[in-house]
Specification:
CATH class: Alpha Beta
Radius of gyration: 13 Å
Number of helices: 2
Shape: globular
CATH architecture: Roll
Structural class: alpha+beta
Amino acid sequence: MSVKVIIPTPLRPFAGKRDSAEFPAATVGEALANLTKEFGELRKHLFTEEGKLRSFVNVYLNDEDIRYLGREETPVKDGDVVSIVPSIAGGHS
């Protein structure tokens, strides 16, 4: 079972400049674990030292926010797309 993980532009330098990667996975968490195994530099950008997904990292499964599904335990099926979307803070002074 292969899942496509979309890598956002700001994180591509830590993933060999790739915009996506495909991995076998049964859950969103497994797909992210495989991603950070292949691209070790990504780990510190996506996860805390305790292994929790960072609060400013949003993850979507086929356009659905995993926070409203099963979080990292959300099951995936062949052909699903996992998108990583870092939160962007901004404003004006």
